[in-house]
Structures are given as structure tokens and as C-alpha cells.
Specification:
- The structure is a single chain.
- It is built from five helices and five strands.
- By secondary structure, the protein is an alpha+beta fold.
- It has a three-stranded antiparallel beta sheet with strand order 4-3-5.
- Helix 1 runs antiparallel to helix 5 and helix 4 runs antiparallel to helix 5.
- It is elongated, with a radius of gyration of 21 Å.
- The two termini are 25 Å apart.
- The model has no long low-confidence stretch (mean pLDDT 90).
């Protein structure tokens, strides 16, 4: 029977009991697969830096754009997707923070906590940002003559920059996946 990987935190870890001084202690040992990036140490540092930089840039840009007052975000088909972006941002920030502490040789827990979180968060964020851009374009087509067009276009350009940073992160993560040793 195939086992689902629901408990990623304990994947590959096993309990062993050892007896010392008449007391039995439980010790956790990693017996699972190890993962490694096919990069030099300098290349891995650059990958970590790029991932962290893109994540911080996108988060700062998202918070800044959320503070701007634009009419398009008040409509459901733009604002809902925009504010739902906070969920994949949290996943992405957790993954990028874990990615900074990753060593060359990783357990499944380290790989899942860093690479997979970044990948899932960035894919979902990419879809939500694309829906936000599409919704804003539809809004501008319908109500462009009734709003401050310059402010709306500047906000849309900021969202497009955020989308471009996330696309760069998605392509970077797809190009350099960790390999099983």
C-alpha cells in the first residue's frame, strides 16, 4: 500500500531506544533520503540570495501597493485576488527564511521546508497576481473614464513588477531543483 506524505516533518526519521546508565532514552535518527543542489557552494549562496531578495522585494512592493488608494481594488474581481495574495506570501516568506539556513546536504524536512514551500507559494502567488492584473484590465476597460486613470495605471504597473519578480522566482526554482543523492 502506498503511503501518503502527509507528515513531511517526520519523513525519514525513526525512533530508536538506547539504554544508558540503566535508563532508556528515545533518540531520533535520520534514515531517509538526502537531497543536494547540483551547484557549487558559491552558486548555492547566490541562489539563496536571489530567492531571499526576490521574496523581500515582492513583499515590500505588495505592502506598498496595498497602502495606495485605487478604485479598481474596491471591486471584488480585483480586490479579492489582491488580498488573497497574503496567504501564499506567508508560505513564501517561511520558505525563503528556511532556505537561508539550508546546507548543501539536506534532509527531506529541510528540502520541504525550504524549496517546496517557496515553489508552492510562488506558483499560487503567480496565479493570483495574474488574476489581479486581468481583473484590473477589465476594470479599466469598463470604468476607465470614471476614475483617475494615471493612478490606476501606476498601480497596475506596480502589480506587473511584482508579477515579474514572482515569475523570475518561479523560473529560478524550476531551473535549480534539489536532487536525491
Amino acid at each position: 500500500m502506498a503511503r501518503l506524505r502527509r507528515d513531511w516533518y517526520l519523513e525519514g526519521w525513526s525512533r530508536e531506544y538506547c539504554e544508558t546508565d540503566g535508563k532508556t532514552r528515545m533518540v531520533w535518527k535520520y534514515t531517509g533520503e538526502y537531497f543536494r543542489y547540483e551547484l557549487s557552494p558559491r552558486g548555492l549562496r547566490r541562489l539563496k540570495a536571489a530567492c531571499a531578495l526576490l521574496t523581500v522585494l515582492m513583499a515590500a512592493l505588495w505592502f506598498h501597493l496595498s497602502m495606495l488608494r485605487v478604485a479598481g481594488r474596491e471591486f471584488f474581481f480585483v480586490g479579492a485576488e489582491w488580498f488573497l495574495c497574503i496567504i501564499p506570501f506567508m508560505v513564501l516568506i517561511l520558505g525563503a527564511a528556511s532556505f537561508l539556513t539550508v546546507r548543501e546536504r539536506m534532509t527531506y524536512r529541510a528540502m520541504y521546508g525550504s524549496y517546496k514551500r517557496c515553489r508552492y507559494g510562488s506558483f499560487i502567488l503567480l496565479a493570483l497576481l495574474a488574476l489581479t492584473i486581468a481583473g484590473e484590465i477589465v476594470f479599466l476597460c469598463l470604468y476607465g473614464s470614471q476614475v483617475n486613470l494615471r493612478r490606476e495605471i501606476l498601480w497596475l504597473a506596480g502589480v506587473a513588477v511584482c508579477f515579474g519578480c514572482d515569475l523570475a522566482l518561479v523560473l529560478l526554482l524550476r531551473r535549480y531543483p534539489p536532487q536525491i543523492e
